[in-house]
């Protein structure tokens, strides 16, 4: 008889092993540290909204969500490949939807649970998951893309960008705790709460994985982060003041992050939830590597 087990910090390795075995497009990317950051470090997460499905001695499923305001998000879900199409997924989804509804949610979204998320939607190559959600009344209405960069085949010459920044009176710095308050206020006022949370989480990494641009007056004018969303080796968010775009500042921030990842031995970078696809393609030869569909259901 299958039964629910509330997810806890004691299950980090168990959940990582389960996801790596059953999320075939992301094998090896689920690490206990990453799971903790994307689930348990989320201040909106409540323990009752995450559970494993145990059958006899096996973990055969997981369903993890989060409530933000009056809306819910599925963060992560899956069924052991040998137990699919047997109704176990429906049992878990019905349970989560009921919990969300009792919490006052009017709508539930699929996976793009920013600012703490694994993927910006459902990877369309997970065909069974797509069909499962459609059969349960979810409507899909938007597609977004990730792009990948080969860090082993590229050297990413930063010298020209460094000289360009110097010529226009700009400098690039790695964020530290002394800059935290000024940085937080600037990003919040310029880009909003979501990117403020994501990029500020770079301070929790060692080394810190957020860089920012300052002008000659020490004013902050741009930023870029990596390893603050999705999995290890992810890039974003990033932004530059509107009046300074087109000067090469965004390129400098991108290259600085890619060099940092390369020096740490990362084989590739995945740019998440990409807006300007042509910019990344032309600047660092990035390729579209995955397409995600975003959707929701009214409760």
3D architecture notes:
The model has no long low-confidence stretch (mean pLDDT 96). The protein is built from 9 helices and 13 strands. It is elongated, with a radius of gyration of 20 Å. It has 299 residues and is of the alpha+beta class. Helix 1 (12-22) packs across helix 2 and helix 6 (180-191) packs antiparallel against helix 7 (193-200).
End-to-end C-alpha gap: 28 Å
Number of helices: 9
Number of DSSP-assigned strands: 13
CATH class of the largest domain: Alpha Beta
CATH topology of the largest domain: Aminopeptidase
Average pLDDT score = 96
The structure class reads alpha+beta
Major sheet: 13 strands, mixed
Name some characteristics of this structure.
299 residues, alpha+beta, 9 helices, Aminopeptidase, 32% helix
Structure at a glance:
Helix content is 32%, strand content 29%. With 299 residues, the chain is an alpha+beta fold.
Chart the SSEs and their pairings.
Blueprint: E1 2-6, H1 12-22, H2 32-40, E2 50-55, E3 58-68, E4 71-79, H3 88-102, E5 107-110, E6 122-123, H4 127-135, E7 139-150, H5 159-167, E8 171-174, H6 180-191, H7 193-200, E9 210-214, E10 220-226, E11 234-240, H8 249-263, E12 268-271, H9 277-284, E13 287-298
Parallel strand pairs: 4-5, 11-12
Antiparallel strand pairs: 1-2, 2-3, 3-4, 5-13, 6-13, 7-12, 7-13, 8-9, 9-10, 10-11
């Amino acid at each position: 008889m299958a039964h629910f087990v509330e997810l806890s910090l004691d299950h980090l390795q168990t959940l990582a092993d389960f996801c790596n075995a059953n999320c075939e497009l992301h094998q090896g990317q689920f690490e206990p540290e990453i799971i903790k950051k994307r689930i348990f470090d989320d201040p909106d997460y409540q323990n009752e909204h995450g559970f494993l499905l145990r059958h006899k001695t096996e973990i055969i499923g997981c369903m993890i969500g989060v409530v933000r305001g009056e809306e819910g998000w599925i963060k992560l879900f899956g069924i052991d490949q040998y137990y699919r199409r047997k109704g176990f997924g429906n049992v878990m989804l019905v349970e989560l939807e009921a919990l969300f509804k009792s919490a006052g949610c009017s709508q539930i979204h699929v996976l793009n649970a920013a600012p703490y998320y694994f993927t910006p939607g459902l990877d369309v190559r997970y065909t069974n998951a797509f069909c499962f959600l459609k059969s349960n009344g979810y409507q899909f209405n938007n597609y977004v893309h990730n792009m990948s960069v080969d860090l082993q085949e590229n050297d990413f010459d930063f010298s020209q960008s460094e000289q360009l920044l110097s010529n226009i009176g700009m400098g690039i710095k790695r964020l530290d705790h002394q800059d935290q308050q000024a940085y937080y206020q600037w990003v919040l006022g310029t880009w909003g709460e979501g990117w403020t949370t994501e990029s500020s989480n770079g301070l929790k990494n060692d080394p810190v994985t957020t860089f920012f641009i300052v002008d000659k007056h020490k004013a902050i004018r741009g930023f870029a982060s990596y390893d603050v969303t999705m999995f290890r080796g992810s890039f974003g968010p990033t932004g530059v003041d509107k009046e300074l775009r087109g000067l090469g500042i965004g390129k400098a921030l991108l290259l600085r992050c890619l060099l940092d990842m390369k020096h740490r031995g990362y084989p590739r970078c995945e740019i998440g939830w990409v807006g300007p696809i042509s910019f990344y393609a032309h600047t660092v030869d990035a390729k579209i590597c995955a397409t995600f569909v975003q959707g929701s259901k009214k409760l």
